[in-house]
Write a structure and sequence with these properties.
The protein has helices at 2-7, 14-20, 27-36, 52-55, 61-68, 76-82, 141-151, 160-170, 183-192, 196-208, and strands at 40-44, 47-50, 72-74, 92-97, 102-106, 109-115, 125-130, 134-139. The protein is α+β, with helices and mostly antiparallel strands. A four-stranded mixed β-sheet has the order 3-4-6-5, with helices on both faces. A hairpin with a 2-residue loop joins strand 1 (40-44) and strand 2 (47-50). The model has no long low-confidence stretch (mean pLDDT 94).
């Protein structure tokens, strides 16, 4: 139990779990036993997290999202809500990837991954360190907003005014936060991303507000 507790909330593969249990003749049986007792939670095949009943910590769905499908970082509504930029509660942890679109339904919740171009992917991604105990990759506020614009189907915004209305009325975005946005990140997204017209409207909106 103590060895499981030491793993904390970091997702691990079955080999690590089995190694903690000693030299077992039937490792699959032991894993099934750990699951049945509620000591570990299977996120997907070959990926587990130790149950909160063992370590008494809250599992980070952001951290799980990073490990569930790689490469990826938390973004879109999930990142915007994390930063307090939109009021809605997000029920699906949404991330961005360079791989194919993917969805997972797990005991820890629903996870979705949206594909973006490889050159665009790394712009504005940061490492969020929590309590000096773990870290996960997440889009900066600027990149999360760009990701939302770039990956929303049929979104066509042809003016700065239309962009402002989209943010304020559709996303219910915290407009006062735009004054602290780094427009360089948006400018880089324009160079490498899709929907350059819409991203240009966002860039100009930021410039007008400074």
């Amino acid at each position: 139990m103590e060895q499981l507790k030491n793993l904390g909330i970091i997702p691990v593969n079955k080999d690590i779990l089995v190694s903690l249990c000693g030299n077992l003749k039937y490792p699959k049986k032991k894993l099934s036993e750990l699951e049945r007792k509620g000591l570990v939670i299977r996120v997907k095949r070959n990926l587990y997290v130790v149950s909160p009943k063992v370590h008494n910590q809250t599992i980070s769905t952001e951290l799980v999202a990073n490990h569930l499908y790689r490469p990826s970082y938390v973004s879109l509504e999930s990142a915007l809500a994390y930063y307090g930029l939109i009021p809605e509660r997000v029920y699906t942890m949404r991330s961005v990837t360079t791989k194919l679109h993917k969805q997972y339904g797990t005991l820890l919740g629903n996870f979705e991954y949206v594909k973006v171009p490889a050159q665009y992917y790394p712009i504005g991604v940061r490492q969020e360190i929590v309590d000096n105990s773990y870290a996960f990759l997440i889009a900066s506020p600027e990149k999360a907003l760009c990701d939302k614009i770039v990956t929303t189907p049929n979104l066509r915004l042809q003016s700065v005014k239309a962009m402002g209305e989209y943010l304020e009325e559709d996303l219910r975005f915290e407009m006062s936060a735009l004054s602290s946005f780094n427009s360089d990140i948006v400018e880089e997204c324009i160079e490498y991303g899709r929907k350059r017209t819409e991203l240009t409207q966002l860039f100009e909106l930021l410039q007008n507000g400074k």
